[in-house]
Design a protein that fits this description.
By secondary structure, the protein is α/β, with parallel strands linked by helices. The protein is built from 19 helices and eleven strands. The strands form two sheets. A six-stranded mixed beta sheet has the order 2-1-3-4-5-6, sandwiched between helices. Helix 3 packs antiparallel against helix 9 and helix 4 packs across helix 8. The chain starts with a helix and ends in a 9-residue tail after the last strand. The structure holds zinc ion. The site of zinc ion has 7 residues, from loops.
């Protein structure tokens, strides 16, 4: 009996356990569990510990602030407050935000934003300790990616916070210097910036800057998303929750990038492209299969949720064989999805591994999130504007707006502000915005120039949303990180020296 018939029969007989019903990929007979032969349970446990640790740093903030608020008129308030902050949050609060509480009352909005940024900084500081248990177990590391023939993976997911766990969770990929992640609203990445990144990496490769990869290729991946349980409301906000539009636009952008590079650098120069969709309810993926010419189609793909369902209960070997068959069948799609020729062997190897790795994430959501995320919509803590730090990789931690200037990134920022109006402003909380950029300490004056840039972007954000700014509902914190050295997410004060002074 095929899975759909089995599901229907079980539903009719009332034998489908409620928990399993939550995840469409987990269809089992009574008494069976969703435990797939190709899933790495140890890796899932490590990721779960990591997730709890990182979320814990943010979860304690509101309760701690409520407790502080209750004590703000006590005589030894500052001492008590600092002790409470150390014990519950792991850091102290700025003296300037506590000292005047007895006169003017605690500025809880300012404290809330400070704690969000400070907890984020703690995550960055603890990244090695936090991630050591899972980094080595990832199946898609840079050695594997190189073995598929790629020296660089340039990934542009949607800026939506639900896609922020993309690398370690959804793709089971180790964050690495050869993997660039640049998020944009609706996965609408910046072609010019991508051409610049491509040029930079190709130059590094040609000058021997990328080890053991003289003839590797550059792969651009665009990641759109959708929600199977609430397609009209919880899909991609940037595309009005219209799934086919999100798919077509992302593919069109990939093709434009290919054309841009071919037209500039000649035929054959274009990077390979891969289009991937994510069901953000359950983190299952849809991989569009490029044809022999590297062309993708919105209508030619394989879905990991279906593979999980169809191969549950098989041995690892049987399941792998079934996945290979499914990819081959996908390639043979006719009608609108028909392509010419078969997958490049390296691309096939990468896609097979991606699909297999994602089965672990499907099971992670089944076992650690009761089959489907409790919050299927937005639940981000802050907006990161500028350049993201690749260190923190977790669903719904922040909304990311990749931007050089606010004018260019306006669409991303507007979507972010809209999301946070619902999440924070409607509850009286400000929108915390971390304005962050990287600099290279090898370049003289780069840090000062980057600080100037942070200030420019901060001022532009405040000017773009004057109402929120006037009401004290925009809290921008500037920060810089060194590409080369140890300075990571260093907070910058308003009066920090800038370039030219
Ligand atoms: Zn989106």
């Amino acid at each position: 009996m095929n899975t759909r018939k089995r599901l229907a029969a079980m539903l009719k007989a009332g034998t489908l356990p409620a928990k399993e019903l939550a995840n469409p990929a987990c269809v089992v007979a009574p008494g069976q569990r969703c435990e797939h032969a190709l899933v790495d349970p140890q890796l899932n446990r490590s990721l779960s510990v990591y997730e709890d640790k990182v979320r814990g740093r943010f979860a304690a903030i509101v309760d701690t602030l409520k407790a502080l608020s209750a004590e703000q008129h006590e005589l030894d308030f500052v001492t008590r407050a600092q002790r409470m902050a150390r014990e519950r949050l792991g850091y102290e609060l700025p003296q300037s935000l506590l000292g005047e509480a007895w006169v003017s009352g605690l500025d809880l909005r300012a404290l809330h934003s400070y704690c969000i940024f400070r907890s984020f900084k703690e995550c960055i500081a603890q990244v090695d300790a936090d991630q050591s248990s899972w980094r080595e177990r990832m199946t898609l590391d840079s050695a594997f990616i190189r073995s598929c023939g790629y020296h660089t993976l340039d990934i542009s997911p949607c800026a939506d916070g639900r896609l922020q766990g993309l690398l370690p969770f959804v793709f089971r990929m180790t964050p690495d210097a050869s993997i660039l992640v640049k998020a944009y609203a609706g996965a609408m990445f910046d072609i010019e910036m991508d051409v610049a990144d491509w040029t930079h990496r190709e130059l590094e490769r040609l000058t021997g800057g990328i080890p053991a990869c003289e003839d590797g290729k550059y792969l651009k991946i665009a990641v759109y998303h959708y929600s199977t349980s609430n397609p009209c409301d919880q899909g991609c906000a940037a595309h009005g929750s219209n799934d086919s539009l999100a798919t077509e636009k992302a593919l069109a952008r990939l093709n434009e990038l290919r054309a841009a590079i071919e037209n500039t650098f000649g035929r054959g120069a274009a990077p390979e492209i891969l289009l991937v969709g994510i069901d953000t309810d359950v983190d299952a993926i849809r991989v569009h299969l490029p044809d022999g010419n590297g062309e993708s189609s919105p209508h030619r793909y394989v879905e990991s949720a279906e593979l999980y369902r169809d191969t549950l209960g098989m041995t690892a070997q049987q399941a792998r064989a079934r996945i290979e068959t499914a990819v081959a069948e996908g390639e043979a799609t006719d009608g609108w999805g028909q392509g010419r020729g078969t997958l490049d062997p390296g691309m096939r190897k990468l896609i097979l591994r991606l699909l297999e790795a994602n089965l672990s994430q499907i099971e992670y959501v089944i076992q650690h999130h009761a089959g489907r995320y409790a919050v299927i919509g937005h639940n981000e803590r802050f907006i990161c504007a500028g350049e993201a730090m690749s260190e923190l990789q977790l669903r719904n931690k922040f909304y990311f707006a990749h931007l050089d200037t606010v004018e260019e990134g306006a669409a991303c920022m507007d979507v972010g502000i809209r999301i946070f109006t619902g999440l924070n402003v409607n509850h009286g909380l400000p929108v915390p915005i971390l304005v962050h950029f990287h600099y290279t300490s090898r370049v003289p004056g780069a840090r000062e120039r980057t600080v100037s840039r942070c200030k420019r972007v901060k001022a532009a954000i405040e000017a773009r949303y004057p109402q929120l700014h006037k009401q004290g509902l925009l809290h921008c914190q500037m920060a810089v990180s060194d590409h080369m050295g140890s300075e990571r997410c260093q907070f910058i004060d308003e009066d920090a020296p800038v370039a030219g002074h």
